[in-house]
Design goal:
There is one protein chain. This protein is an alpha+beta fold and about 270 residues long. It is built from ten helices and eight strands. It has two domains: about 35-90, 3-methyladenine DNA Glycosylase II, Chain A, domain 3 (Orthogonal Bundle); about 100-265, Alpha-Beta Plaits (2-Layer Sandwich), CATH 3.30.70. It has helices spanning about 5-30, 35-45, 55-65, 80-90, 125-130, 145-150, 175-180, 205-210, 220-225, 250-255; strands spanning about 100-105, 155-160, 165, 185-190, 195-200, 230-235, 240, 260-265. The protein has a two-stranded antiparallel sheet with strand order 1-4. A two-stranded antiparallel sheet has the order 2-3. It has a two-stranded antiparallel ribbon with strand order 5-8. The longest helix is centred in the N-terminal third of the chain and has 26 residues, at about 5-30.
């Protein structure tokens, strides 16, 4: 037999045997697929953000299928549509979902916030905060180096004038920005309920805050006094809103002398 023909036949035989071996192995060692899990997974958007508390969409679908959780509305990006589709497959009740958005609790722009030092280094909030807490005089101010921007999978965050801003229309409440902010300045709030949000986390006395940032909460108590339902309290010289008590009247924002209260889903008191 010609050597070339023999080589071709030999390689073909080896390929055939190897193919048959792989086919048999794939059949014997195949991992059983849970059809219910697959159907639930198809209802999820595939963001794999982990906001549901599980290891991405696969983890959440598996937990629902096995009964580890009965909460059908844990997927923020999927929202109500995903919850209804999951409920139809699993037979569980549709968990009521409130559309949420991330908010950066800071208005310390380049113009309003003072700096205590000049930072020359890696353009990262996590790196800059290690140098005496960052360049801004306010220990709780947004550093504006964009770690949250790079982390957001939905392009919902931009840095403008030294401060990060979230676009509620694009935000899917995945919490990745919340986790990455070294100053813990980002939280989730209801999108369309007219809830007031205090855009400041400064814990200094009013006089000190004014020196650090012109837009910071000075703890004057006017918002708390204007609130007729007791939804606002001033803790450590900074106002905080109890969303469960709030009736979205907007009187707190109207009385704020530094305009650091923003109404979600309604008129922006501060821009």
């Amino acid at each position: 037999m010609h050597p070339i023909l023999f080589a071709v036949l030999l390689v073909s035989a080896i390929g055939l045997i190897a193919g048959l071996g792989l086919s048999i192995a794939s059949a014997v060692m195949a991992v059983p697929v849970d059809e219910k899990t697959e159907k639930i997974r198809a209802c999820l958007p595939g963001a794999n953000c982990g906001a549901c508390g599980f290891s991405g969409c696969d983890g959440y679908a598996d937990a629902l299928s096995k009964g580890t959780t009965t909460e059908t509305g844990l997927c923020g990006p999927g929202g109500k549509e995903a919850a209804e589709a999951i409920a139809e497959i699993t037979g569980l009740a549709v968990t009521e979902t409130v559309p949420m958005t991330a908010v950066v609790h800071c208005r310390g722009t380049c113009e309003s916030a003072a700096n205590k030092l000049e930072y020359f280094g890696i353009e990262s909030c996590r790196m800059a905060v290690q140098v005496f807490g960052g360049p801004k005089a306010c220990a709780n101010g947004c550093l504006g180096f964009g770690d949250c921007v790079r982390e957001c999978p939905f392009n919902a965050i931009t840095v403008c004038d030294g401060v990060a801003h979230v676009d509620p229309a694009l935000c899917q409440a995945c919490k990745k920005c919340v986790a990455v902010c070294p100053k813990s300045l980002i939280s989730l709030v209801p999108k369309d309920m007219g809830i007031p949000v205090v855009l400041c986390k400064n814990k200094e006395k009013g006089a000190v805050t004014r020196k650090q940032c012109k837009s910071g909460c000075i703890g004057c108590m006017k918002c708390a006094k204007n609130c007729e339902v007791g939804a606002i309290s001033v803790i450590n010289f900074c106002a905080e809103v109890d969303a469960e008590k709030c009736v979205a009247c907007g009187k707190c924002a109207e009385g704020c002398p530094v305009h650091c209260i923003h109404i979600m889903g309604g008129r922006a008191v501060v821009e």
